[in-house]
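Exercise 7. Predict the structure of FAD-binding domain-containing protein from Zophobas morio.
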Amino acid sequence: MDFHHIACNYNHMGIVATLKLPEDSPNVVAWQRHLPDGGFLALLPLTQGFSSMVWSMNAKEAKRVASLSEDAFVDAINDALWKVQPRSGFVDQATQTFDNLIRFFNLPSTSMTQCPPKVLGCDIKSRAMFPLGIGHATNYVSKGVALVGDAAHRIHPLVGQGVNLGFGDVICLNKVLAEAVYAGSTLGNLQYLKNYETERQRFNVPMILVVHGLFQLYSTQFTPVVILRSLGLQATNALTPLKKFLMSQAAGLRPQQA
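Solution. The predicted structure, encoded as tokens:
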């Protein structure tokens, strides 16, 4: 089998853990906060009172945080979620001016802020750490073999697309194999497997490049860039059709499925 792989290491680590939240509050919202060091902390609801966390940070700091006691680890998470970070006055002025413009046109505003949940504890056995980067196989298939999911591509968890890309691979491969069987061919027929490779690479490669670009965009605190990305988020939230389109793409849906 002749598979080639292109990769780029970010020198960042992702810390994952299962967190305990208050049981008397609905746990139906996913949270993500971008941090001044270029990392981010995201919470994904699991069941009532529990969420899954991924926390991205530079490798040196990740090793320190991963070694904290449970109480200190939980305190660090709450600090990252709740601490008021210093902001540039230029950024605040630009976003406020743009928000006023949005309100003038009666579009959805982002001025209302929701508060993240308070983390009460952590399943210590669930805590783990892994390196972050991007990677992509230049070819997904060989005779009788097809790569799917992380075997074919690796992506930063910034927008939570890793598992969606993997699911999309499986759905597409299943469709292609069904077509091969229906046509009386074998499952390992390279012609049909190439159809899978072409379709998935057309979707996966742009997504990987977009996420790589977002990682670079949020890794800088250069004021003009911060202003542009902040205004971009406000504009996306205000333009409902654009927001729905981006959400459907993130979910791996085609326009007719959205």
